[in-house]
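## Example record

The block below lists the input lines for one assembly entry, exactly as stored, with component labels intact.
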Amino acid sequence: MADDLAKPEELLENSGYKRPATGWMDTPIDIRPGMYCYASNPKSVEYVGLPNPRQWNPLEDDWKLPENWQEIVHKGIKERLEKFRSFKIFMDVCVRCGACADKCHFFIGTGDPKNMPVLRAELLRSVYRNDFTTAGKIFKSLAGARPLTLDVLKEWWYYFFQCTECRRCSVFCPYGIDTAEITIIGRELLNLLGLNIDWIATPVANCYRTGNHLGIQPHAFKDMLEFFVEDIEDITGINVEPSYNKKGADILFITPSGDVFADPGTYTCMGYMILFKYLKDKYGFDITWSTYASEGGNFGFFTSHETMKRLNSKMYAEAKRLGVKWILGGECGHMWRVINQYMETMNGPADFLEEPVSPITGTKFENAKSTKMVHIAEFVADLIKHDKLELDPSRNDNQIVTFHDSCNPARGMGMLEEPRYVIKNVCNNFYEMPANTIRENTFCCGSGAGLNAGENMELRMCGGMPRANAVKYVHEKHGVNMLACVCAIDRAVFPALMEYWVPEVDVTGMSELVANALIMPGEKDRDTDLRGEPLPGKEDE
Amino acid sequence: MNKNYMFSLIAVIVLFLIAYFGVETAGLHVLFGIVIPYLAALIFIVGFVYRVRDWAYSPVPFRIPSTCGQQASLPWIRQATYDNPSSNGGVIVRMILEVLFFRSLFRNMRFELKGGKKLSYIWEKWLWLFALAFHWAFLVVVIRHLRFFAEPVPFWVQFLEYLDGFVRVEFLSDVLQVGLPGVFMSGLVLLVAVIFLFLRRVFISQVNYISLASDYFPLFLIMGIAISGILMRYFIKVDIVGVKEFTMGLATFSPSIPEGVGVIFYVHLLFVSVLLVYFPFSKLMHLGGVFLSPTRNLANNSRAKRHINPWNYPVHVHTYEEYEDEFREKMIEAGLPVEKESN
Amino acid sequence: MPRQMYDKGKIVAGLVIFVIIATFPFWYNIGKAAPAPELKLTDKAKAEKECVMSVTDMKAGHMQLLDEWRDEVVRSANRLYVNSKGKSFNMSLSNTCLDCHSNKADFCDKCHDYASVRPYCWDCHIDNPKATEEAKE
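Predicted C-alpha cells for the full assembly:
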C-alpha cells in the first residue's frame, strides 16, 4: 500500500460532500495523484489495434491527441446515439432529481460532486446538448450545454475512470438511468483517442494474446495449477490433477485468471479443483480447463463493446473446438454481467452446445438454456440441494462469515440466493451486513471496472469505504472475520481494503469454503484448511 | 441566489408581462387566445411523437435490465418476479409500478456519516412522496380540465371532479372566499408539491449544485400555471361559461374570442402554451422516456432466450490456431494437447 | 445501418395511444352540436331589466354573493341587501333570485351543466318554493 496514503480516520473525516465555490462547469479539473491510474502503455494499445498508441502522461498538458480529436469525439457520440437507445434516452430524460447522488460509493467516499452519478453523466450530457439538441444550441449554458474543450475531455477521462460501473445508482433512478452505461460509452469515446488506463489496456492485450489478463502462457498456466495440486495433496492426501484442453470432455470450466495468480483467489481456485475431483471420483464428472480460454473476466468490457466481444469470443470458440456439452463459469463479477447480458447476443448462437443439464442431479438449468453457461454457485447450490456433497461445515467454524454481493452478479444478473445457500450449507457462522448495503443495494468494492491498480490507492480506499464500513459493523457486532464473495476482483482488492479499514477481516471465495467443508473419498484426516491454518480443534497438534 | 433560478424566474415573469400587456394594452386577444394555443398544441403533439420516434430509430442492442432482486434460476429459489422479471408479465408489473408508483424512487434513502465514523442510510421518502403527489395531482388537474373541452362533460370527468372536491372546506370565506366554488384538492396539492420540489433544489446543497436553469424553469412555469388557475377559481373570478364557450371553440375548430373573460385567463393560457412548447425539447420528455428505458422494460432472460443485436458485426479475434502457432512448442513440452504437432 | 424503427409495433402503438389521448378535445366533440347555453329569461326577469349586480359580475361572482347572503342571514339574521345603486333586496335565494328566475332548468341548470358545476344550493332549496305553493293552491 502506498506510504503517503492518509490514515483511515483522516480519510473518513474528509469524506462527505464538499461543495466547490464555483459551479461545476466553472470548476477546473485537478488530476490528483492517488486518484487516477497510469496512462495506457502504447504497446498494449497497438497490440489490439486500438487508436492512437503513444506514450502519454495525464499530468502533462499535452495529451498527444490526434489533431481532429473533437471531430472524432463528435462522430463517436453520433454513432453511439444511433446504436444505443439506452445512451440516447439516458442523455435526454434525466431530470436531475438527485436521488442517485449519495448512492455512489465514490461520492460518499470522496465528497467530490463530480462523483455524483448525475454529474458524472452531465459531464458528457453537457457536450451532447451542445452538439445535438435544439435547446442546447440556442440557450447554451442555461440549458446545461457546453462545448467540448480539452479541459472537458480531461474531466471525462478523470471521472469515467472514477466509476466502477457498479449500477447502484441505476437501482434508485426513477427512469433507470444507468451510469455504468454512460461510463461505458464515455470510455469508448476516450478510447477513440487512445485515452485508456494501463491497468485496463495491458490486461486486454495480454488476454488477446495469451488467453488471460495476466499474460500467463499455456505451459505456465499448467505449472501454476500443478503447484496447487501439490498443495492440495499435502493438505488432503488426494491428487486432484485436472485435465487441460481436453477434447470431448463434458464440460469446459472458465474462471478469472486472477484466481490462478494471487492469494486469496488461489484458495478459491484450489476449491474448484477439489470440488471437480470429488465429482469426478464420485459421479464420473468430466470437466476440462482451457489454456486458450483461460480468462473469465473481460477487461475489454471496460474498454469498448467491440473489445469486449473480441475477448469474449474465445469462450464459445474454445467450447466448440473441444466439443464440450456446455460451459461452467467460475466466481467473477463483471465476467457474469458479460455472460448474462452480452455473450450470446455478441458471439452466439451457441447452437453447437447442449442445453445445460447437471450430469449429477439431472437438473436442467432452464435459465441458461440458450447461452449454455452455468454459474458455479448455481451448479453447487443444486448439488447441495440434492444432497450430492458430503460436507462437514464445522471445518469452517473458525470463520465467522459475511457475504458481499458483487455488483455485477447482483445488479446485472440477480444471483443473490445461490451463493448464500451454498455458504450457509458449508459454514455454521453466517451474518448478513445491513440490508441497505447488500443484495441489489450492495456497495462496490471500490476497485472494479479496471480500477484495481496500485497507483490509485486513495481512490480505492475512498470508494471502498461504504463497503468496508458495513463489514466493520458486522465485525464489531458479530465478530465477523471473513468476508466471502463470488468475484475475483473482490478477492484481489478486498485484502487491501480490509487491511486499511477493518484489519481483522480476511477475504475468501465461496468455493474455498466449499472445499474446506467437502469430505473427499479417501482423504486423510485434515489438520489445516486450504490456507494451512489449523482446523478447529486441531490447533494443538 | 444563483443565476440559474433567477434566469428562470425572470423568464416566467416576462411571460406573465407579455400576456398581461399583450392582452390588456395591445389587445392581442386573437394571438394569445387562438394562434399561440393552437401552435402550442401542434408543437407538443408533433414534437413528442418526433422525439419518441427518434429514440425508436436507435436499437436496443443488448439486454441490460438493472436486476433489483433474485433472478429466475433453480426452481426452488424464489424469484423476485417483478424486480427481476424473466417474463413479459413480470416486465409489465415492473413498468406499472415504475410509471404509476415510482417504485425506484421509493427505494430512496439518505446517506449520513454518524459520529464521524459510522456510515448510515436513513429513511427518506419525501422526494418520492412529493414527486408522486406532484405527478398525480397534475394528472387529475389535466383530466378535470376536460370539462372545458367536452360537451357533454363525460361522466368520468364528473366523477373525478366529485372525488377531487370530496373534501368540502370553506375557510376564511368572509375574506378570501376559498371554498367557493368547492375546493379541488388536486390544484392545491400540485402547488404545494411543486413548491417542495423547488425548495429542495434551493436548500439541499447537492441538488442545488446539479440544478440547471432548465430545471427551475418548468417548476416556475408550473407554479405560475397553478397560481393563475387557483386565482381564477377562488379569487379573481372569471366567467366560466364564457371560458368554456371559448375552449369549445378551440376544440371544434371554430374559435372565437369571448367577451368579458379577464386577462388572468390569458396569462394562464400562455403559461400552459409555453409548457406545451417547452415539453418536447426538454427533460420533460421523461414522460415518454420512462417507458423506453432499457434497464427497466426488458426481461432479464438473456441467458434463457437469444436476443439479437441488429448491428452485430464481425470483429478481429485471436483464434486458437494463432494462439497455438505462437505457443506450440511450449505446449508440447508441458504436455498440453495440441492440434498440430509442428508449424 | 439503414434508418428504421426498432420495436416498432410497441412504440407505434404507444404513440397512437398518446395521440388519441392528446387530441381528445378535438375528436370527442366531432358531430356533437354543443353550443353555449342560451339563457331563457322569464317575463318577470325581462321586465326587471337589471339583476342585483351587473350581468358581468353576476356571471362570474353570483356564487360568492349567494354565499355572503347565506352567512349574513344565518349568522346575523340580517335579510337586507343594498346594492351599489342603493336598491334594496331581501337576501333569499328562493324568494328573491328564484322569484324572477323561476325557470331553474332553463336558467340555472343550463350553465351549471355546461360548466360541469354541481352547486349544493339545491341540496336544501329543492325548488322554487313559490312555484310549489302556487301548485298547491
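Residues 8-30+51-195 of chain A form one domain. The two ends of chain A are 35 Å apart (CA to CA).
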